[in-house]
Write a structure and sequence with these properties.
Length: 343
């Protein structure tokens, strides 16, 4: 259980939410895990599949407290809301910004600045911790290039230029990815990003991690009342969660890439955990996927200190914290959107 920006997150499995007067009570079997007054909550998010009492759902609807149910893997399930008030205003603001390139650019550049900042942190960290195993000079060179790209992003005047810089920076970053793989090189060589379908073990895991992260960003945006399909940098396309793809940019390296590298370097996943299909596509075996998902869930429970909020939260709540900050900015409660800049 964690309260963050007037949102209560209940992430303990097997919990049931009930109402006691003007309080929400979190129960597990016959034990009360906690109680929180409803009067200062804007929303409640739970991953416990046991659900909530009808009395609590009715009270939340009356008080216009959004009650969101997620699956245990973080996928959006459903949301209980009362009369339409704040969400329609928030989404209309989102749609207006999405239709205006200048306004979209002002937000989109923060997503990509966050992405490149975090990738630079990864490169600097690996040169510090593994200076005898990587080409330090090469890492420093590309880290410097990413820094220059960040400066360029602050000056761009259109979304096409922003996408161009982001693409160049991604190409430079991935030139070093193979060196960040320190173990099991015979089974986990990386020679460039490929997808639809992934053609090697590393890309199979990257694609799965990005899919999970995008799913969790979409759920986070739904939770705060934003439309995950209407983005600022990614263009609208039927069926594409464009805003979720925007939001996940700053978390790709620091969240998904580091996760994949950890599984390889700690030998949690090995070459035996993959299958190559006749089409050339590489996928995880059933046992490999089980280990991957188990490790993903465990990583989400690890605690960090959010660099902007200054509060300790689980990694799994980072997409929700960023979605909340984005919604606060769109409501004019913040002067700018603060990307997740890992330190």
């Amino acid at each position: 259980m964690r309260k963050l920006l007037n949102t209560l997150f209940v992430t303990t499995p097997e919990t049931y939410l009930a109402l006691d007067g003007e309080n929400i009570v979190i129960k597990k079997e016959d034990t009360n895990l906690g109680r929180v007054p409803l009067h200062n909550l804007e929303s409640i998010v739970t991953t416990g599949y046991l659900g909530a009492s009808p009395a609590l759902m009715r009270k939340c609807a009356e008080k216009n407290i959004g009650l969101t149910f997620l699956t245990r893997t973080g996928k959006f399930g459903s949301r209980v809301t009362g009369g339409t008030t704040g969400n329609v205003i928030l989404r209309k603001k989102q749609y207006r910004i999405s239709d205006n390139e200048e306004d979209s650019l002002a937000i989109a550049r923060h997503f990509i600045i966050g992405k490149l900042y975090n990738q630079r942190w990864m490169l600097e960290r690996i040169t510090r911790d593994n200076s005898f195993r990587v080409d330090v000079e090469r890492f420093k060179q590309i880290s410097g290039e990413l820094k220059k790209y960040i400066e360029d992003i602050r000056q761009v005047n259109d979304l096409e230029s922003l996408r161009g810089i982001e693409g160049q920076a991604a190409n430079r970053y991935f030139l070093l990815f193979d060196q960040m793989i320190l173990q099991q090189k015979q089974d986990f060589g990386f020679y460039g990003r490929n997808r639809r379908p992934p053609l090697d073990n590393v890309n199979a895991m990257l694609s799965l991690a990005y899919t999970l992260l995008a799913q969790e960003c979409a759920a986070a945006l739904e939770t705060v009342g934003l439309d995950p399909y209407v983005g600022f940098m990614h263009q609208d396309r039927p069926g594409r969660i464009s805003l979720a793809l925007d939001l996940m940019e700053e978390l790709r390296g620091i969240y998904a890439d580091r996760f994949v590298l950890t599984l390889i370097n700690k030998k949690v996943i090995t070459g035996k955990d993959f299958l190559k299909k006749e089409s050339g596509a590489v996928i995880l075996t059933d046992d490999g996927r089980r280990k991957f998902f188990q490790q993903w869930q465990e990583r989400k429970q690890e605690q960090i200190q959010h660099p902007f909020l200054g509060e300790k939260i689980n990694w799994g709540l980072v997409p929700y914290a960023q979605a909340l900050l984005l919604s606060r900015f769109l409501r004019d409660d913040l002067d700018g959107y603060p990307p997740f800049l890992w330190k």
